[in-house]
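Input for the complex:
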Amino acid sequence: MPHGEYCASRIRGLSVRDIRFPTSLQSDGSDAIHPDPDYSCAYVVLFTDTNFKGHGLAFTIGRGTELVVAAVKSLSHLVVGKKLDDIYDDFAATWRSLTSESQLRWVGPEKGVIHLAVAALVNALWDLWARVQHKPLWKLLVDMEPEELVSTIDFRYIEDVLSREEAITMLEEMKPGKEGREERMIKRGYPAYTTSAGWLGYSQEKIEGLLKENLSRGWRHFKIKVGQDLEDDKRRCKIVRDIIGQDNTMMVDANQKWGVDEAVAWMKELAPYKPLWIEEPTSPDDVLGHATIAKALEPLGIGVASGEMCQNRVMFKQMFQAGALRYCQIDACRTGGVNEVLAIYLMAKKFKVPVCPHAGGVGLCEMVQHLQMWDYISVSGTTKERIIEYVDHLSQHFKTPIKVHNCHYLAPKVPGYSVEMWERSLQAYEYPYGSEWNKMFAEGTFKDPRATPPPWVEHRQDGDITHR
Amino acid sequence: MPHGEYCASRIRGLSVRDIRFPTSLQSDGSDAIHPDPDYSCAYVVLFTDTNFKGHGLAFTIGRGTELVVAAVKSLSHLVVGKKLDDIYDDFAATWRSLTSESQLRWVGPEKGVIHLAVAALVNALWDLWARVQHKPLWKLLVDMEPEELVSTIDFRYIEDVLSREEAITMLEEMKPGKEGREERMIKRGYPAYTTSAGWLGYSQEKIEGLLKENLSRGWRHFKIKVGQDLEDDKRRCKIVRDIIGQDNTMMVDANQKWGVDEAVAWMKELAPYKPLWIEEPTSPDDVLGHATIAKALEPLGIGVASGEMCQNRVMFKQMFQAGALRYCQIDACRTGGVNEVLAIYLMAKKFKVPVCPHAGGVGLCEMVQHLQMWDYISVSGTTKERIIEYVDHLSQHFKTPIKVHNCHYLAPKVPGYSVEMWERSLQAYEYPYGSEWNKMFAEGTFKDPRATPPPWVEHRQDGDITHR
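Predicted:
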């Protein structure tokens, strides 16, 4: 593939910043396991020796962002100094160099902190590539020849269910009708559902108000959080069902609160309210547990949905093999960025599992719309049983925020992956240096971490340690 | 349980240091996936307001240690300031407070960097507890009443295969004969096998020499690394089998090199050399893949062994449920320290899978001996099909190193978990400040990371960014 006029340029450097929004103040995003998230991200900018930059992020929820930032720094030597040609000519090899660095992989491999850092870096590489090509990411993906697209994927550990050749064939088979689907996508956009009304920390009044408002705006799918208290869940499910009626759809989300048996028992109690799916019923690591729950709930018409914490393609592979997922909720930055997400979409297609991406957070809506539109045009060819999560928080911080019209995501037109944030937002919310944080520290809304000595002592500086 | 005379004391502070040994210079520890490990650890010391300290570590292999160190700092506020009584009176709750911190869990949960940091902290808490009780850790565990021991375990996500009550009953049932087993353990020690001869980077001469030397010293089990080149593996397996004969045991270890089908095909080629087990044939995340390999190799008499990278009890649970492991290789600091390892031993017992701990590295031999001796005395009651890995590197840096006599680990007598290192070793090998590192930097053996500017730019300090 021609890399455009700037093919000879190099990554000259990168910056990575710890950006946190104080969402815990309004209980935005609160659920049974995460009562107080401060929606955050490790925000990466790649600088080249031309005017092009690449922007990427990994979503986090406050504390711990500093670790992803540190991991990006630890990985940065694998990207900085590289020629763009060398990166994109064998993107699968580039990806593997990041996920399989011979020493760093020990603290993963391909999971948790280090994989979130890979996601931020890799997403920035894709943003850069799309910008160089003057295309929004979805269009870059759609226009790639099957062989080229598949060449970005590392098939290690998934070849037993999906070979490179099979993936290419899948994409070849979907070529007919692509243009028509692209036109339809540009015209209508991609259907969405809303989680804005469903956070656990919200009052009954707030929930009712938001539901009615959303109904009147045309929303037909509503997701609420469950898992903290069964009686309260019943009460809230009833409110939702009463307000939205029988013809609209309710989904529930337990955010990993339950053990396997508990999940089945609890959901039997909520079955009368007819949820379409139960999301994250148990540990994201428990493939067999998800399969057990799926089997038990199928007769009740409740599907199992999961994926936002599913750590990599190897776990998704098993989820598919075990029949554990009725809905696959890929995340744009939990697994290792676009390359790995493409592999998961292709496996989902093979196992006939519809993908309904996890979104919300910081920048997730902005990213997953590209992936899901590519899925419609090039992979699944349908929006049947597929829908993108929509949460309307924090999009004001993005230069090209999502546009949702008539409950559909409209196809992005601007080159890139849509995750570039305003410099004024970055300067306000960089933790703990940003102007907004300093204001909140001064007001006492949050404690300034720099105001007291840390709980650890720096051994080497002291000779004999100073105790506190 | 009485916590001893110092029950009212508090954790006053902690230090955590990045300790790295330049083992890559001799190819010690080299395998098909990790060609150049520098055996390292994040080393934690807990300080109390009495004379007692707690020492713990998480083993790493060089780069990436800085991330585990950072994660220990991020978690330290959950430990520092706490009373020992409050920690140990409900150790399962303390453990959960570390693994489920409402924001930090997002960058895990319970896996990778953050879980390695939990392991280092939790291991230090157990070392401290054992010291306060004036007992080596194995003896502390052995002397605990079943109910008390089980109270340290967080059963979340494993209750579907093992309940608290079942765990207590298991331990109660093993009470008869405990004293005799303890006596035998003190007298004979625990059987070991050696990996010292088997690293991929070693020359044929070095392998042959080490094998002969080890045979003459009484060793009967030998493990070698495979997976890089089939013909070379055959050649090396033949050398080993020729030297050790048919009556001794050979194990092979692929360190995750293969896909599922490849693992089966490769091991069929090595079957004539009669390896007892194939260790880590594929991704540590692939439960179903391990099960497929196990089923295919069973008729050939080759068992599947894995565990050193198995991230937590939820993954081990599934490995057992799926019949994926013939041998369970627990690691002392990959999962969240002693509390979680106890849960894994109890599940292994239930599923009748023998535990053969992963050791070597830094301090792993020192730690796992305690766990395995507890298993013999209180859980399995047997050493049949069980054996501890033994690698004789780096033990000189520990104050109370393992003692191996007649190819058996001798029961530690000194209070604690045996992981305290000499201050002179810490000062020599702290990275990058230690005296040995400074010497190697000066000699040009390694590059001083401080000698060149880092690949990233600090955005906020510069206003406009300085490119390199």
